[in-house]
Amino acid sequence: MAINLIELQKKRWLLVVPILIGVFITAILVKTSKQPTQLDMQEISQSVRVINIPVVDLVPSAVGYGSTVPSVILDAVAEVDGKVIEMLPNLKKGSIVQAGSILLRIDPAEYELTIAEIETTIQSTKAQLDQNYVEEINTRASLEIENKSLESGKKELERLKNIVKKGAVSRSALDQQERTYLSQLQSVQSLKNALNLLPVERKLLQAQLAGEEAKLASGLLDLENTTVILPFDGRIAEVNIEVGQYVRVGDVMTIADGIHKAEVTAQIPISRVRPLVPISDTSKMEITDDLFEKVLGFKAKVRLQEIDVEWNARFVRMNDTIDPKSRTMGVIVEVDEPYENAIPGVRPPLVKGMFVEVEIQGKPIVNQVVIPRTALHEDKVYLVDSDNRLEIREVEVDVVDSEFVSIGSGLEGGEKLIVSDLIPAIKGMLLSTINDETLSNNLISVTTGSFK
Asked: Would you say the pTM of this structure is higher than 0.90?
């Protein structure tokens, strides 16, 4: 037992001695070490890109997309029945045909025969009218003679009556004169009746003549419709007939598109159309053909984005409906001479069905504060104040574009606007600035761009 106790005490010392040595060393280090020096805190600035806010004469614009269609289209629908006897040699799909060219002819023989028959009937009716006028003249002359004879017979009858009373003439002579007088009276009445019927017969003949002349006009129109003439310079879009084919009324024989004007109906968001009409009271505006071009100053361009080609266009009208799903309205522009200046492989003509971009520009709005759209954070912007510190300011937006916004109130020209991402954005934080001249120049170019 004594030996175990001695061994236990030795083990305790083995544990205590290292601890005592460690405490001793720590005390020496604390006593001999230097006190830590306290450094002054320095504020670190955040680097940001800025532009000086410009004030410009803002040219409002709106962009939409649509497909081109010819302004005029000829649907050559058969207006008469018949066999096609002639066609223009180059009446082929895609061919360019000059105005006044005869596209095709339908056999006119049947219609020429009908016209000849009607003309014969008209001549016969006119002859009957002439006869009616002559009969009227002759009847009036006969009536005049009969009236004179009747007057003489009446006087003779009166004379005989007086003589009979005196007994100088027999009663039979008086009766004979009475019969003669009545016969003359009957003749006069017959002539009057005939004279009264002549105007009625003439009206009937005149009505028949008018009917025949109407038939003649219809026949001449049918004859004219046997020849199909292209009224404008056009491009053949469809051919559905051949020489020798029989066509019936209503058959579409060929379709031609005009090549001097093309239209595009571009769908533009309603919100983008409003800035183009900077007029508060439009109720008193007179809607005329030149309203949009002369009064509102609308200009337009049509672009083919795939190869960066554009055409000057003219705003012509608004569509009559609004798409309730996309909240867009159709804006229709017209391009003059869409085939002009075409260069194969370089500049194509503006042909039917081409999907294009349409840009509409309105009159400039003077003295507008504009900023890049990316610099707007909901209804706030980040500015650099005179002490190079962050200022967060609320603004009111007027015009919103895909690339910029116009500020109604809250900003002034010349202030330093932060255009780079700032995370986190802490009011009053120290900033170091880098002027972004490229963005500034692009902003001015986009907001003041106008068509030449």
From this structure: no
